[in-house]
Design goal:
This protein is an alpha/beta fold and about 475 residues long. It starts with a strand and ends with a helix. Bound molecules: adenosine-5'-diphosphate and alpha-D-glucopyranose (GLC). The site of adenosine-5'-diphosphate has 17 residues, from helix 1, strand 13, strand 14 and helix 12.
């Protein structure tokens, strides 16, 4: 049995801004099911709603700050959660990274450096918790300083750093290191310095014993300039210590047979029941209730990564086709505005919901026919897997985890029963539009469509095999 400290800045259902939270909610649970001793550590944000007891464990003094560690449990499993409680930094409105206006908190470097310091104290068993991990598993830049600080210790646990997204590196002006009390030996271009900026992610990429990312394809992509954002050389240099392990999904939470958040549960053998969800979704979003036209959907952060501009370019032509389009998301204000403007022009064909709404997300997965993910890059992506499980065929761009989890519907893949969606290559509107047309044509052949739905729904996206890959990695360190 391995003792694993899982360091993360968000975890569903306590707090979530994106896929990192889904992974932090479900991977530790899967590891616990493999009989591993996993403890999760994260900041105690104002928005966290613990479901069970929260008890005070201890108080630590680091960098002249008095920090509490609280203990609670994941609501739907037995994984222990340690909350790093420092109200000045974490008891604020807004989300973990942004204020209520959507601007990054100005003291993010201090906030997450303190979080990393505490994680290291716990990892070194200096926090009076009487528990020392064998493995410290860090995730994204917010935990990047953990491997860096650990590198300065003598007898220490092994560290794994998982990249969920290279686009977010935790870059701060060099001046911000003053308040952080950074040991001098970490501050050089072979360390945390990146073009005279402080880079949190480099702490993970340089000092972790092993780096993983969330799909095999993305592990290769980030070694190229397009996806490496200036760190491709470092990643290539460390390629013997870099691997891709595809994310799983929580198959209990995302299960059309038992989902309490949808109008009618269904499975591959009862696909006509899926239509009741479509009707409910159309009603809820004030669209005409019509089962004949395909319903296209998108859920996600409205940012450049997700190819929202490609959707905007395609929408006028899409609206000329017999289809409906629903979108749930929030992010870039310009995207939000342009989407809303279009929705006003086509109120009978298109519904935009700005904001974050978990219940609606489940109903959209269940009620739609096609799910759009034209991402410019996608380290893994979860919605394409949720979609397949719900028999909602994804249209994805061939990148990262999308390339690894969706099989394009071509004559040969349809006949050998491996087709599960639609895949296109180029990140431009015409390639996307052509693929949308391909889906429209196939939709009119309901017999074939239903077969592809069944292929998609039968795929195993559970954590089982990926959690075993992490375990094999932990054992090798
Ligand atoms: P990323 O982490 O890049 O945002 P993923 O596909 O890995 O992308 O994960 C996104 C997660 O966040 C999914 O679980 C998705 O359903 C959820 N999500 C994104 N936007 C919203 C929203 N507006 N409302 C509800 N859920 C959302
Ligand atoms: C990131 C990526 C997304 C991935 C998620 C969980 O937010 O953008 O592709 O699925 O992390 O690993």
């Amino acid at each position: 049995m391995k003792k694993i400290l899982f360091v993360t800045s968000e975890a569903h259902p306590l707090i979530k801004t994106g896929g990192l939270a889904d992974v932090s909610g479900s991977l530790p649970k899967a590891l616990a099911e493999l009989s591993q001793d996993v403890r999760l550590i994260m900041p105690n944000y104002q928005a966290i709603k613990p479901h069970g007891d929260v008890r005070f464990l201890c108080s630590l003094r680091v960098d002249n700050r008095e920090v509490n560690i609280l203990e609670t449990q994941m609501p739907d499993n037995q994984v222990t959660v340690w909350l790093v409680d420092y109200p000045d930094f974490f008891n604020r409105p807004g989300n973990p990274y942004l204020d209520e206006q959507g601007e990054p908190w100005p003291d993010n470097a201090d906030r997450f450096a303190l979080f990393c310091r505490i994680a290291v104290e716990v990892a070194m068993n200096r926090a009076y918790l009487d528990w020392q991990p064998d493995i410290v598993h860090c995730n994204d830049w917010q935990s990047g300083l953990v491997p860096a600080f650990l590198s300065l210790e003598t007898t220490k646990p092994a560290s794994v750093f998982t990249i969920h997204n290279m686009a977010y590196q935790g870059l701060f002006p060099a001046a911000s290191i003053q308040g952080l009390n950074l040991p001098g030996q970490l501050w050089n271009p072979g360390g945390l310095e990146f073009h005279n900026m402080l880079s949190f992610i480099k702490g993970g990429l340089i000092y972790a014993n092993h780096i993983t990312t969330v799909s095999p394809t993305y592990a290769l992509e980030i070694q190229t300039p397009t996806f490496g954002y200036g760190l491709e050389g470092l990643l290539e240099y460390r390629k013997d210590y870099l691997s891709g392990i595809i994310n799983g999904i929580d198959i209990d939470l995302w299960n059309p047979e038992a989902d309490p958040l949808i109008a009618q549960q269904y499975r591959a053998a009862s696909l006509p029941d899926k239509k009741l969800n479509k009707a409910e979704l159309q009603r809820r979003l004030s669209l005409p209730v019509n089962n004949r036209v395909p319903l296209f959907a998108l859920i996600g952060r409205l940012v450049e990564q997700k190819g929202i501009d490609l959707i905007l370019d395609c929408l006028p032509e899409m609206m000329a086709m017999p289809m409906q389009f629903v979108l749930l998301g929030s992010g870039d204000k310009d995207f939000e505005q342009r989407l809303q403007n279009l929705a006003q022009v086509y109120p009978d064909k298109m519904a935009i919901t700005l904001g974050y709404d978990e219940t609606l997300a489940h109903l959209i997965e269940a009620g739609s026919d096609v799910f759009l993910m034209p991402s410019r890059f996608e380290p893994c992506g979860l919605n394409q897997m949720y979609s397949q499980r719900y028999g909602t065929l994804p249209i994805v761009r061939k990148t990262g985890g999308l390339a690894d989890t969706v099989v394009d519907s071509l004559p040969e893949t349809i006949s050998d029963r491996t087709a599960t969606g639609f895949v296109f290559n180029e990140a431009n509107a015409s390639s996307l539009l052509e693929t949308i047309k391909r889906a429209m044509i196939l939709y009119s052949d309901q017999k074939t469509w239903t077969k592809i739905q069944a292929n998609a729904m039968a795929k195993d996206f559970s954590w089982q095999s990926s959690a075993e890959q992490y375990l094999t990695l932990y054992r090798s360190l």
